[in-house]
Predict the 3D structure of the following.
Amino acid sequence: MTLILSNEDVDKLLTMPECIDALEEAYVELAEGRGITRTRSDCITPTKRPDAVYGLKSMDGVCPKLGVGAVRINSDIVTFPKKGNTVVREKVPAAPGNRWVGLVLLFSVDNGEPLAIMPDGVMQRMRVGATNGLGIKYLARENAETVGILGSGWQAGSQLMAACAVRDIKEIRCFSPTRANREAFAGEMTEMLGVEVRAVDQPEDAIKGADIAMCSSSSLDHIFFAPWVKTGMHMTSIKRPEIEMDALRKADRVVIHNHDEKPIHVMTRDLANAENAKDQGWNSVGDLDFAKLPTLPDLIVGRAQGRQSDREITCFLNNIGLGYQFAAVGAAVIKKAKDGGLGHELPTDWFTEDVHP
Amino acid sequence: MTLILSNEDVDKLLTMPECIDALEEAYVELAEGRGITRTRSDCITPTKRPDAVYGLKSMDGVCPKLGVGAVRINSDIVTFPKKGNTVVREKVPAAPGNRWVGLVLLFSVDNGEPLAIMPDGVMQRMRVGATNGLGIKYLARENAETVGILGSGWQAGSQLMAACAVRDIKEIRCFSPTRANREAFAGEMTEMLGVEVRAVDQPEDAIKGADIAMCSSSSLDHIFFAPWVKTGMHMTSIKRPEIEMDALRKADRVVIHNHDEKPIHVMTRDLANAENAKDQGWNSVGDLDFAKLPTLPDLIVGRAQGRQSDREITCFLNNIGLGYQFAAVGAAVIKKAKDGGLGHELPTDWFTEDVHP
């Protein structure tokens, strides 16, 4: 049977510590060349809505040790509205019922069969959080206990879950441009984490004195600046442009997620020619040579050095997502789903065939 | 509703002339930069079966004019057995029920929604046939009436369907290494096409005197050789290595499908280091500069010149498949499926989500 899971199912099946463990094991495989990942690609065209573009995004990865190959697909109507002082990348829920479209398909490395199909939302959020959590685990001070976070969205929640999973966090301060959002977020997260999350009115108030400074926004502009960097701090970001270059330069060590410099961009001719479509935030970090920076998998297997003293300033840049993350986390979800009786079971025959393709 | 179609459904919905028309229209869009396609990628790892590898292949394409984006995925257990004198690439039906795994997912460019999911088999075969059919339409002599084909498999059938759709074919001769296969194929195709297909004992007997020489094998070695090339002939191949370089050099004009030189190959370290896994048949055509050859879309929009006389020797090399083909042909299938009442309708909500991914 091929399992159709919902985001609610995945949410029930996947805890943050499990997600972190799954990725940590899988990154060892990746570092050793036994796991593989195919650079994300974005196909971008016009769509009927004139202020939007259509994006068909995909990324693949295979982890033979865990027995799973994954393809993650997003079919997005994307807009670039201005929020506060920054331009953000915002997907419009344009599918029937005002919904977004993201899917993860999981396959068996042993016999090729389609194991499961599910929306990507919960899994993609958890793997971003877990990845930055591993950055904290391997780079932040052991005694780090205060977090400042910029952002109060869906991603920010899993960032905090991950921080609390790997360090004994005592205090969290949150800033985002809209007061109502940050206050609601602070309330929800305080309850979920059992740690007080306080909404503050200025980004500096969130970051000041924080052992761990987290950026978790949808901004295509910088939101974290050099004057905020302090001795012993660990900085962490879920997207390249968030931390300005001068802040990165203050770090004693910067670790990135992967050496894929940017997604494979394929665009219609007109869009490619239009300047605003050209830069999707990937070109904003100018002179940092990503090819020379160590990656998180390098760090996990000890090929790259972690923090050397409590005074060091460290940074983990989650510069690009990997299809491989979905293979790793997907394997964990499937393992538990088999016992859970969750989801819809469809005949595998619907997704296989009796002809040589 | 998201439609789950079977190969049988697609077979009922898609005729070869419709498939050719859909691709012809879509290739105009591609040539004009209004349609886009993302280079196929192959992720290759070990699998449990020691003489095989696991391959997770994907390709994407979007045709805004037809309103459809497509992702085609193959999850294959691949072996490289020797058949006769040639090494072939053979996918093992290892999924439950001895089945293969290939899927096409179709999405709306207008609102992103998942329109349909189906096995890729019938569609992929038809689009290969139709693509080579367009090569014949634009390059073979108008009065071409004899076909010689090397190969008697699943692909060979759609090659003949396509040839008969674009030219008034009177005679077909077929060779493949196994007598029983070629004879069964000849019988079936004679009945289907209403044109006599004759099985012959030597490849030369199939090709001699043919106006159109078709290669349609799973071979990773050359199967068509220079001495067989004759004045006025059109040669056509579904894979790069089939026609040897000396034969290609005899052509007055060679047109390829696309400038993607080869798939994006991502392999585990050990496989990448192993010579036999390195060359999947893509490096076999040594000194032909594909970047300078015109493509089929160029030819269709008149940017590249077609045949100039009955004496010219022409060649169409279907050098690589495109995700874009599945968007084009998928749009045609969906359009007809809506009237047909075929397939299983699943709630679109199963494949969408209420969270921003």
User: Anything to note?
Assistant: Chain A has a mean pLDDT of 94. The longest helix of chain A spans residues 121-139. DSSP finds eleven helices and 18 strands in chain A. Chain A touches chain B through 82 residues (CB under 8 Å).
